[in-house]
Amino acid sequence: MKELRMHGKGGQGIVVGGETLSNAFLNAGKFLAVMPSYGVERRGSDVTAFGRLSDEPVRENCMCYEPDYLVIFDPSQLKKPATYKGFVPGGVIVACGTDPEEVLSMGVKPSKLVMVDGIRIAYEVTGNNLTNMIMCGAFCRAVPELPMEALLKAIEENLPKNFQKTSILGAQRGHDEAVVYTYEIHGEHSKKAPAWTRHVLACREPEKPRYEAPWGNGAEKIVTVDTGTWKVVRPVLTEESCIRCGICATYCPIQCIRKGEDGYFRADLDYCKGCGVCAYECPKKALTMVQESEFRKA
N or C: which end of the chain has fewer CB within 10 A? Predict the structure, then answer.
């Protein structure tokens, strides 16, 4: 049995992507049991899904701690140590990005690393950051046991008809445009036995929970989270078109848009999640949503 773990953001279809891979493996004669972990269940927040792959039906239904496969649906997850926790040396990583050094610099040792510019493809195909089918296609490129035909059949049989065309196009482009890197890994690695068989788990006080609270701390146990790291697009203001009405600030769901000394309303990019509500509600269309990658180039 092999373990699979998927990391991404809420709203990118991580759960649907896992279910589609499960159905695709079933078409290929294998079994993949998937289980999501939603976290705070908010668009833009971190989402993780787990899977176990076997030639036989899978009964075990819990989190995966030592994955053989990692699928990273969003570039924001590439620099987070939690993404790679427990990754088995010699395993396979499928990542949304273009620079393999971003992954290798985290200290992991994959035998195969597949990179695909999923965000760019997603905006070209669907107009948003929905990378799930793109990463599923790249996964087929990384894992020969899952033929592309099995994935396309799973999409056609299980997704709503109005999503099938873009899903198939995204999956095919993810497969075709993925870049594969292979590495020699020396030495053998055996997975650890479950924690409860290694030592007695002592009772201890849990860590402080982290809540989304960009407007400030409401109590001692609430920790402010920089939700600006969640976004893939940001609002850019055209001052010539702006009438300084403040409607954008009124509709901002997390109230991160504030009036500056010059009278213009601008988003605090440390907390802006790139939802696009401000640009949609602006009566003069003075706000434009621009991909974060454009600012990284600069």
Answer: C
From 34-43, 176-185, 188-197, 251-260, the region with the lowest mean pLDDT: 188-197
- Domain layout of the chain by residue ranges: 2-185, 227-297
Q: How far apart are CA 183 and CA 190, in angstroms?
A: 19
SS in 3 state form for 155-173? HHHHCCHHHHHHHHHHHHH
Please state at what angle helix 132-142 crosses helix 161-177, rounded to 10 degrees: 40
DSSP state of 75: G
Q: Name the strand (E) or helix (H) holding 148.
A: helix 148-158
Yes or no: say if 140 and 148 are a contact pair by the CB < 8 Å rule. Answer: yes
Contacts of 70 (CB under 8 A, 6+ apart): 4, 5, 6, 7, 83, 84, 87, 91, 92, 93, 94, 95, 110
C-alpha distances in Å from residue 61, one per residue of 3, 28, 52, 57, 147: 11, 21, 8, 12, 25
Over residues 55-66, the mean pLDDT reads: 84
What's the pLDDT band for 65 if we cut at 50, 70, 90?
A: confident
285: which residues sit within 8 A by CB, 6+ positions away? 241, 279
Q: Assess contact for 114 and 178: CB atoms under 8 A.
A: yes
Give me the residues paired with residue 190 across strands: none
In whole angstroms, give the CA distance from residue 253 to residue 231.
Answer: 14
206: tokens are 């849990």
C-beta of residue 44 within 8 angstroms of C-beta of residue 10? yes
Q: Do you know the residue count of the chain?
A: 298
8 A C-beta contact, residue 117 and residue 97: yes
pLDDT at 218 over 50: no
